[in-house]
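Continuing the batch. This is chain 6 of the set; chains 1 through 5 are on the previous pages. Same settings as before, nothing changed between runs. Recording input and output for traceability.
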Amino acid sequence: MDSRHIRSLRLTPSQFDVIATLGDTSGLTCAELSTATLVTKGTLTGVLDRLEEKGLIRRTPVESDRRSTRICLTAKGEELFRKIFAAHTAFLRPYFERALTAAEADQLRLLLLRLRQSFLEAPSS
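Output for chain 6:
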């Protein structure tokens, strides 16, 4: 990932990871988000604070576990996700097209989706 490109979107790499991970989900707990983004819980708290200040995420208590908080994108966060995801995909496309055949790209996509699902299903620690 090119951090200059991420910064041109006015996000830090960690903020981008969080927005991209939360996109197309109904929200994740902090533990799930930390696992999926590989951002430590300590660092994640600061990242979430800044995203909340920007009005991009909201924190809501998990009813079944009052110690947990579910993180969701706000409408503004969803809009930003759609914008940055499209921009980042367009930025990365030439790299993938040079390196992989169409069949290899399809196989990679399936493998990455499987890996993502594994992260999302990982037990909270």
